[in-house]
Amino acid sequence: MAECHPVGFQWVMEAKARGAKLIHVDPRFTRTSALADIHVPLRAGTDIAFLGGIINYVLQNDKYFREYVVAYTNAPVILTEDFADTEDLDGVFSGFDPEHRSYDFHTWQYQGLAVQAASGERDQEYEDRGGQDRERVSAVREAGRGEAHGSGGAKIPSGSPDTDETLSHPRCIFQVLKRHFARYTPQTVEDICGIPQETFRQVCELLTENSGRDRTTAFAYAVGWTQHTVGVQYIRTAAILQTLLGNIGRPGGGIMALRGHASIQGSTDIPTLFNLLPGYLPMPHAYGNQTLDTFIEAESTEKGYWANMRAYMVSLLKAYWGAKATPENDFCFDYLPRLTGSHSTYETVMAQLAGDCKGYFLYGENPAVGSANAKMQRLGMASLDWLVVLDFSLIESATWWKDGPEIETGELRTEDIGTEVFFMPAAAHTEKAGSYTNTQRLLQWHHQAVESPGDARSDLWFTFHLGRKIREKLAGSTDEMDRPILDLTWDYPTQGRLAEPDAEAVLAEINGWDSNGRPLASYEQLNSDGSTVCGCWIYCGVYANGVNQAARRRPAGEQNWVANEWGWAWPANRRILYNRASADPDGKPWSERKALVWWDQEKAMWAGHDVPDFSAAKSPHYRPPAAARGAEALSGIDPFVMQADGKAWLFVPVGLTDGPLPAHYEPQDSPFRNRLYTQQRNPVRQVLPFRHPDNRLQPSGDQPGSELFPYVATTYRLTEHHTAGGMTRWLPYLAELQPEFFCEVSPELAAQRGLEHLGWATVITARNVVECRVLVTDRMTPLTVQGRRMHQVGLPYHWGVAGYTTGDSANDLTGMSLDPNVHIQEVKAFACDIQPGRRPRGPARAELVASYQRRAGITEQTGMEI
Amino acid sequence: MADGVPGMALAEQPRQWGQRMAEALAGEQDPAAVSGYPEHPPRVGFFTDTSVCIGCKACEVACKEWNHVPEDGLNLTGMSYDNTAGLGADTWRHVAFIEQRKPLARQQAGLQHETGPDGFRWLMASDVCKHCTHAACLDVCPTGSLMRTEFGTVVVQEDICNGCGYCIPACPYGVIDQRKGDGRAWKCTLCYDRLGVGMEPACAKACPTESIQFGPLDELRERAAGRLAQLHEAGVGDARLYGADPNDGVGGDGAFFLLLDEPEVYGLPPDPVVTTADLPSMWRHAVAAAATLTAMVGIAVAVGRVSDRDLDVWAVPTGGAASVARS
Fold first, then answer.
1. Each residue's pLDDT tens digit, A298-316
2. Which whole number is the average pLDDT over A751-775?
3. Chain B residues with CB-CB distance to A730 below 8 A
4. Is A21 exposed, middle or buried (0-12, 13-18, 19+ CB in 10 A)?
5. Domain check: are A819 and A726 in the same one?
6. In this structure, are A822 and A715 located in the same domain?
7. Which residue intervals of A433-529 are DSSP H helices?
8. In CATH, what number is assigned to the domain containing residue B198?
9. B225 membership: H or E segment, kind and range
10. Does some domain include residue B271?
């Protein structure tokens, strides 16, 4: 966190000054470790084993927050007899379909009701509702529905599941969880992660001693934590642990996702992702004859706030198509694009290579350096008809056709490349107004300070005027295909010499207005009859009373400690989500020390320091009548209001593609066998679509050839540079602080391989080979894993061939193997070789990779097994 | 020397002048007042608490941005994450990174190396011009380019500096430096231009963890003493203040530090002494000699025995006078 989020780290330092203990878990001793009380180095890619070990400690030693767990989680719920665990099936859950490499979730259900998907893959049961098209259903699975409903849960049917509040029924989720993690012992943790048992015991004790009524513990992670073939399950494991300890919905608790870019949270709220509409509404699939009604039927839930999905969706369609969206035409629901499968960034690369994807916009993104298997990213771009790059500098993604590594090796020749590349200089954040949404879902407005110089323009300017010009060109068209574009409301006011669209006008549309044009104050005002307009339902209220609430900057000293008047947080300016859980079932704070919101008996209202994340007048003793729907159907003790049952899910009966519980699997490329199961890797990870000569995977564990890649590598950022370097490598003041691509190795590894401090090293995987300078440092430590001394190689991934400081790209080494829920690449843990000296030049570079592939016996089948 | 003690009348008698020099070069005092600001704001400075430095180098970048200090080369030094290497004409803040095989109080580094002592710590510290109470750079500047400000800080005036370079060997910390291709001397101004309009220096403003604290020196010293006691209580026995003592060889620094090891570890001199410390005694000797000479000449004139050769000594101030005195 000190490395990648130094400004945010000030709050950690403040907590430390007030007595907080800081535990840092990282393969490397970083700037964060330097300030931590305990640094826990572990083998990259083993976090589920580590966290699972802590869960086991918590369960075996009765360290969980029992009242919280019984009242607010699904721990008491009893599963049907059909469920079989990885412990029973040696590493896979029941419902595994080896042929399609997918899970059928039907055996993961609650007894007493046939559950429907909650958070995420709500549409999984399309077949159950008479959907006939097997291919289409499989396409849905691939489309990563796990991301949908990032703000809430998937659907479960009406009725009440069987429960056992004593948590002793053998099939209640609590007992299932206990059995599932029983083998994640301190010895297992030591064997898999390389963490000594004594250190592990200390971490367990610190965590549990600091959780409960009077104390809470927070987890903070940077997004590298998700970059694994089990990325979603990493976060799930942390969520299970924090829920068991009662650290969710309470001050000082939670799991903080520290996002890598400014407004990366915003880019999923108002998404740049293929499978989402604003506010985590799912993008419809190309099912035949689907109407708005059948879509809502499939996607909304019966209980909780997702039951109002129709109001959110219709208000969005009204924001898109205004007066053209009417009840008679389904509010232009048919205008929305339809998904035919997964179109993640990596499938897009494959589609480029196949010639199916012909054009590509890159807004402030440098995949030629920053995405996994950067070489394939460049080859994909070389297959395009056109490419538009909007950035500050001529980044590698704009210049690969003349100076990319493949030009040097002869794999590409400039004169053979047909891609037409357009470079659009971009405005910096100081040159445009807009909002950032970051960790804590906090929107903060930034004002334009100066106009952008020369031809530089904001992305808002570019998008608005591109749309305007396209609409001009299509004007008068009678082709039905053009209606969605021509009918759009595309009337944002512009200002200034550059005709910059007014960003506040966009914010006002996102917030929405009623039939009289008055700004809405809350998503509870949204209607499903077309009388309200709202561009993103979870942001409704950010422009309440016509005031830009995100621009509020009241100093900390002039308000309470929750600081609700600094910026604006979705939903409804709540700073801590699910904060009903900060009070006990009767509505009293669990302790005075950790009081946040509480039930005020006299006023019959929820009150507190934060905005209560609960119906303001719903008593803790409210129990819904059987016929209740939506928010009304949640009881006074259901704090997780976005979940269909109002409970935190320790076990996910529906919504995840790779299992209801996390299990430790080895990374795609690993020098170790899975110590827990015969199943080596996540059985439903995404690899098959990426079979390609430039994306060869490696033998793992004890397979022959794995010995050629004996070291574990991990990629990361340095404080001095930002991601793929587009914002930093061109700046002399930053370039001079970290002027060269280097690797970090321990003195022991340096001795083993003959690497010299400040000398050169060549790092090799089945994909590619790179060279870098060597930093031999005590901060890299060998670990003992499965009785073997193991070394790790650290590789910052900022560099590329262009810019003021240049170097090879670490992402040339990484492969395309993805998490199946959200399609994120595994770049934080892979196996490699490292040798002293510089890499070969020209065609010899590819030849070195080929020789490793030959010696390791790598074929197109390698690593593709289940 | 008049430049080094602004506000002093040139007509002042040498004896008084030497006395003031002696006062100016020893012990605690108010440098702005001594420099002739009868009314002035409190002396300000930096307290750099290295125990909370996270090595983000925001101070280095903010300093360069605000002061238009040029980039000075892409050099991978191999000294941990320190690719700046040291203070100089083009580096007015420098963050040192020190990797050590010894523990930091009760911190558990968790490393499992095969040889060598257990324990590991990574020290980071942002260095800067010390703005000495007794600033030798200022004492030796012949042009008046180096000046003491009303805030008690020491600033080079770039439009006056003639690039003579006297200040460079004078600095006991090796801070001030001549810029290549420019010749003039450059160093931290403690953002004199920002202080004048009530803003804190750029580095302190940018520091996310309050490792660099700016303020009135008295307050900073008090805060530092409290922080030191706190760290000692927490078992960080190595913690010590550096440059905080007004009775040290430079009369205390305007920019002082809390370090976690010996100063040498951070590249700082262990016991810096203002290089012009001997000037008062040198001047006292010179004044005595001049007085003797004057007396001798007076006597000589009075008795009418002055030879041409004796009178020539007026062209040679001290040494010549001394020789006359001996004759």
1. 887 777 778 899 999 999 9
2. 98
3. none
4. middle
5. yes
6. yes
7. 459-474, 483-486, 503-511
8. 3.30.70.20
9. helix B217-233
10. no
**Residue B306 belongs to domain spanning:** 279-326
Cβ-contact A739, A749 below 8 angstroms: no
Is residue A62 domain-resident?
Answer: yes
Per-residue three-class SS string for B130-182: CCECCCHHHHHCCCCCEEECCCCCEEECCCCCCCCCCHHHHCCCCCCEECCCC
**Same domain, yes or no: B298 and B206:** no
Same domain for A71 and A100, yes or no, is: yes
pLDDT value for A134 = 47
B193 and B114 belong to one structural domain:
yes
Contact list, B111 vs chain A (CB under 8 Å): 29, 39, 41, 778-779, 781
Do B25 and B149 lie in a common domain? yes
Residues 4-43 of B with CB under 8 A from A: none
Q: Tell me the angle at which helices A292-299 and A309-321 cross, rounded to the nearest 10 degrees.
A: 140
Q: Read off the tokens for A495.
A: 């200002």
Which one of A13, A35, A38 has the shortest CB-CB distance to B108?
A38
Cα atoms in the Cβ-side hemisphere of radius 13 Å centred on A379: 18
Kindly report, residue by residue over A627-683, the tens digit of the pLDDT. 888 888 899 999 998 888 899 999 999 889 999 999 999 999 999 999 999 999 999
B122 at the A interface (CB within 8 A)? yes
The Cα–Cα gap between A789 and A749 comes to 10
Percent of residues, chain B, with pLDDT higher than 70: 82
Q: A2 and B55 in contact by Cβ < 8 A?
A: yes
Number of domains in chain B: 2
Q: Sorting pLDDT into bands at 50, 70 and 90, what band is B28?
A: low
Let me know whether A241 and A177 are in one domain. yes
| Structural Rg of chain A based on CA atoms | 27
Helical spans, DSSP H, in A617-772: 732-735, 747-753
Q: Dihedral of CA A386/A390/A394/A400: which sign?
A: negative
Which of B313, B61, B15, B274 has the alpha carbon at shortest distance from B169? Answer: B274
- H-helix or E-strand containing A422? strand A420-425
- The last residue of one of the domains, among B266, B295, B312, is B266
Q: Is the peptide bond before A571 cis (omega within 30 degrees of 0)?
A: yes
Q: Are residues B316 and B189 in the same domain?
A: no
Band (A122; pLDDT cuts 50, 70, 90): very low
Query: Could you tell me if A700 and A777 lie in one domain?
Result: yes
The candidate with the shortest Cα–Cα distance to A121, out of A100, A149, A97, A93, is A149
B272 in any annotated domain: no
3-state DSSP assignment of residue A649: coil
User: Residues A204-213: pLDDT tens digits?
Assistant: 999 999 999 9
Rounded-to-integer distance, Cα B189 and Cα A350, Å: 56
Phi-psi region of A296 (alpha: psi -120 to 50; beta: other; left: phi over 0): alpha
Under an 8 A CB cutoff, do A778 and B54 touch?
Answer: no
ipTM attached to this prediction: 0.92
Q: How many Å lie between the alpha carbon of B53 and the closest alpha carbon of chain A?
A: 8
B118 touches chain A (CB under 8 A): no
Cβ separation of A746 and B113 shorter than 8 Å?
Answer: yes
Q: How far is CA B143 from CA B35, B37, B134, B137, B157, in A?
A: 16, 20, 18, 12, 10
Residue span of the structural domain in which A514 resides: 266-339+490-550
Same domain? For A316 and A280 the reply is yes
pTM (two decimals): 0.91
CATH number where A763 lies: 2.40.40.20
How many domains is chain A built from?
4
Under DSSP, is residue A689 helix (H, G, I), strand (E, B) or coil?
Answer: helix
Tokens encoding A704: 């022959």
Tell me which DSSP letter residue B197 carries: T
Averaged confidence pLDDT in chain A: 93
Q: What is the pLDDT of residues A578-632, one digit of tens each?
A: 999 999 999 999 999 999 999 999 999 999 999 999 999 999 999 999 888 888 8
Q: Which of B60, B76, B110 sits opposite A739 (nearest CB)?
A: B76
